[in-house]
Amino acid sequence: MNLTSYIQQTVVTSPKNIEQTLQLLAEDCTIPFIARYRKDRTGNLDEVAIEQIAKQKQQFDTIVKRKESILASIEEQGMLTDVLEQKIKNSFDLNELEDLYLPFKKKRKTKADTARENGLEPLAKMIMSQKIEDVYTVASKYRNEKINSEEDALQGARDIIAEWINENGYLRKVIRRKFQRESVITSKVVKTKKEEESAQKFSHYFDWSEPLYKTASHRLLAMLRAENEGFVKINVAIEPVDAITFMEETVIKTENETAAQLRMAVADAYKRLLAPSLSNEVLQEAKLKADKNSIGVFADNLSQLLLGAPLGEKRVLAIDPGFKTGCKIVCLDETGGLLYNETIFPHAPQKDTAMAMKKIRSMVNSYKIEAIAIGNGTASRETEFFIKKIAFDKPLQVFVVSEAGASVYSASKVARDEFPNYDVTVRGAVSIGRRLQDPLAELLKIEPKAIGVGQYQHDVDQMLLKEELDQVVGRSVNAVGINLNTASKSLLSYVSGIGEKMAENIVAYRKEHGTFSNRNELKKVNRLGEKAFQQAAAFVRIKNGTNPLDNSAVHPEAYKVVERMAKDLNVSLKELIGNKQYIEKIDKQRYYTDDIGLLAIEDILNELEKPGLDPRKSAKIFEFDATVKTINDLKIGQVLPGIVNNITNFGCFVDIGIKESGLVHISKLKAGFVSDVNEVVKLHEQIMVKVTDVDLGNKRIQLSMIL
């Protein structure tokens, strides 16, 4: 099987599209660049398909490398036959490859190794041949200073036979399939830990059993966490009778005295070798599947969060609310620059409401504030009510903004570098305000795991998680495009072709030379060569630059084509851009070339019609029910406005304006069956929910979207 055929098993597209995509990847083209600017070469494959091709190539390379390693190892041992070599070369299944390699794999000394050292392998071979009648008479010939009896000799022979059975590729394959289809996972509480307070969150799994293939990812990860913390013991097993019967029928061909020895060897092989190995294998496979599932949920949530509605370039007064320590206030300019900071005490115990109102009014007027952002943590609702009582000279939009991860940012090196002369409270308030202006630009400064929109993100494979989240962040950044003259180093580092070091160089260039006037100026940045420019240029924007196309998603390589279009219409570039009447007159057939195909021309025309269009929606004001301030105010049957603040496989959590979020179980999202929560709701979506249950003791709220 070649690479293209291997990839076609997962990605449904033509061999040509796969080969072209692989060629572009080999040329160090980034996935966002390929997806956006090489559609004619890839057959219009999207980023997800291109990412799959890249991953499948990586898997293929891993398998090829493993095969080479296995072949070299067996050949070094002088055990490589033509038949075995062909089997290894033809296999593209890692489990099968490991099964083929198992008899030759270097391992710790086994019972079978000891038996061989004691000269018992010939006896094992005779028993396995099933041609001897009196096994005890034959076994007596193998007594020596280490083998004191016939039974000792037979035991050693059975140890060798058990290892052969365990290493039999056919048997392993069949029993593996049984484990994959029939395994039951059982979780039992560790009795000495049962009464511990921290164990109670896992009480559901104190006595739990279900088929492994039916185990939802969140349940499996919860059980594994409970085991890791020492509260439960997990076991994965199948009904052994059928498996052992099959093994006996495969191995035993006669009913002479050797049959009894072989039955004992089969039982030992299953219990001591096969079952533990395959049990662990299927559990690891299930864990990997659960990891990928949970990471997928996290990635979807993160994508929705990063592409949340921005307020845009407006002056914002941001509030990090609090009671005893007061409310931290910052005033930000249109680009998120800090203009002023202050602390007010409108709430108990100080309750200096009049002075707080006066200060807020003064700041709003002095700094020409256009919107107010309030963090959704402690004292959020009280602060929102307080702000809405103030009589401003002009209408102001008031937004409640998620604080998730703001404290992580405020204590980070990024925040210290940005605001070395301010404490963490000021930095936290700045982050809240900037999140309203541009969620994408601000949230990128926080490690995704700290944002809190995943399930069991600390329990999944951390390398897989980082890889997937980095792709999500990069995809989001490049889908939106960034302002080259205002973007932070964090934001720049995710732009196609740039990376962390180049982002530092761009920021350093800005500090030394001022703002960029055109995209070509990027080439002056230290170590930013032609390849990096090709990959990055179209994903950055320059407002009011020397070339109007620099504020669009049109790639510089296509500027001459657009200039020809304008010239043929006898208009300037500025007149052409955004003018639908002119654009509709363009005959795209006249302009495509070998380098810029019809799909690229269509994209160019769409971009010219709406240059630099932000794919995100605009920020909308949202208000919680004013009568609900704590969990004690909830009543069964109440219908309330809420905001989706987390999505899992089993439902979504909804912020209804109090400390505790409520759960809408997947069965309560809508009438009828729901297979995917994301089909019904999106992160930060504004919805209406009905209260169906309130558990005051455990502070749990059950909600329904079926009103």
Automatic annotation (TrEMBL):
Residues 637-706 form the S1 motif domain. SMART domains: S1, YqgFc. SUPFAM superfamilies: Nucleic acid-binding proteins (SSF50249), Ribonuclease H-like (SSF53098), RuvA domain 2-like (SSF47781), Tex N-terminal region-like (SSF158832). This is Tex family protein.
